[in-house]
Amino acid sequence: MALSFFDDRSVPPAEDALHAALGAAAPLWQDLRARIGRRFSPLVETWGFSGKSTGWGLRLKRGERTILYMTPRQGHFLVSFALGEKAVKAAHGSDLPPAVLQVIDRAPKYAEGRGVRLELRGLDELAAIETLAEIKMAN
Questions:
Q1: pTM
Q2: Nearest residue to 105 (alpha-carbon basis) of 83, 124, 126, 120
Q3: Where do the structural domains in the chain lie, given as residue ranges?
Q4: Closest CA to 79 of 38, 127, 43, 39
Q5: What is the arrangement of strands in the sheet containing 44-49, beginning at the earlier edge strand?
Q6: How confident is the model at residue 68 (pLDDT cuts 50, 70, 90)?
Q7: Which end of the chain is more exposed for a tag (fewer CB within 10 A), N or C?
């Protein structure tokens, strides 16, 4: 089973199917896209299929720099970041919740940074994700 709800390479997610999969989390999906778009304009959104184990995800970029990845799941979605060590240090100096800092500290390390993946199920997580995006882009 793929990480994404959408796992068929030949069928990119359609807007109506995305909303049906996300359910009550669909407004959060739209809100996060709008917030990131306002903060990091001009924003480019691109759907991509990363492979059978990951499926389809939405990448949000400003210029050549990826801000975050959004992966739709059943009833919620994941938000992923590649955070460099400067961003990790800045995150620890911020007011991010301890649970978010714990996810960052436990994230696997790759050449492009730590692969941080957070679930977004409610409004409480939205502010933390927006803060993390700002930290990433500033570092």
A1: 0.95
A2: 83
A3: 15-138
A4: 127
A5: 44-49, 56-62, 65-72, 77-83, 113-120, 109-110
A6: very high
A7: N
